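Q: Fold this one first, please.
A: Sequence and structure below.
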Amino acid sequence: MNGMLVMVPSVHVMMRDGQMWMDDKFVAGLHLFAREWGGPTRVVLQQGSATLPFASPVTAADLPGELRLIAQDAPISAEDLRGAQVVLGTADDHRQLDLARLCGAVGARLVYAIEYPLQTRLAVARLDLARRPLRLARSVQWFLTQELRLRRAFRSADGVQANGYPAMAGLWGVEQRHMPRSGQSVGAGDHGHSFRNAGPRGVERAAADRPCRPADRDEGYAGPHSHRHRAAQPGRGFPHGHL
């Protein structure tokens, strides 16, 4: 049996009159990961009030594994990750880019999932802010700064799950020596790059390729759910997938 997989998604749980509401697709993904992982799981979710368009009421009993709720905008802590063999974080959420340090503190391996490359984030910003050039310029500058942080975070991780060819292609500039060669290839293998569309079992393989180590760079950043049309706003989360 595998050790514990701790998932830190960017999607939030909507609280309404004390009732939890979760994105339907996200809940289905949790069950898939729990089934395929073959070991205990935990999901760390931020509470939020923003509306989820395709959500249903749920209880903790409806979810596989352990559920840990944290306050809106609260940073992820080492205690949230304690006991994990592998942590699956979300690189589309800029506030998760310091997870390597926390994983090193608890002895866990870190795999980042990413869906939206820089080109996509910039395209969304241009569409949203086409008539607001000064704000667009600030947003572009902010995204470029976050991209540098994101690439440093990848070099401190044990694996990357690229969700689709655009995400993989956008990350070819990260040096091969920093990443393990694992998981199911999505086409990068011929070019000597190590980004994979891993899935639950591939996440395990990616993280098992080399031992976890504490982050050796000072990258103090912390991690909510952010919709595409909020992505163009500096200081907010990147657009995201659900896992």
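Q: Good. Now the second chain.
A: Here it is, same layout.
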Amino acid sequence: MNEGKATENPESRFSVALVSAARLPGVRIHREAYLRKALARYCSEGEIRVAVEQTPAAAGISLDVLDKAANDSIRYETAKVSALSAAAGLRVMFGTQSANAAVGKVAEMTKQTFAKSVSKAIPVVGAAISGTLTFATYRPMAKRLKKHLADSELAKPTPRVVVVEAEEVYEPSVVAQAETPAADETAVAVEGSPSA
């Protein structure tokens, strides 16, 4: 019995697979370029600068704006990966032409015509199926990732304490009235006099 395999847990295998996938070309995302592109439609250059230097939450970017930017990215990436999947399915399915030639030699003329029609439709159907399957699996997983990232601590604004030293500011006329007791006594005398 191989003890090394028995002690390996699924999480470590997932981590190894994730690290291996991250090393593939085109998998890594340059954070600064992504944030600049995703937020350009919704934020000022100052907000984008702070979002790149710290986090979008620290830049004061609202959750609605982040949600819109995330949905735009998900739509774009889903369309791109589905189109690539469909193109890959179309290209691989072109191998059916050799099968069509073999069927054509053996079959009658009507069968041969039918086989040619079917062999031309198969790559298109295969591409549509491939693209649809990719779309149906990629989009929900992208939405789950968006929700997970939105719930992470980096997405939440950090409370900041701002210390401001206060200065006492006096208006000269208010200070003069407050410091003169005669003005207060006069006012009391006027209020308390029998003519008032």
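Q: Anything worth noting on the second one?
A: Residues 183-193 have pLDDT under 50 and may be disordered.
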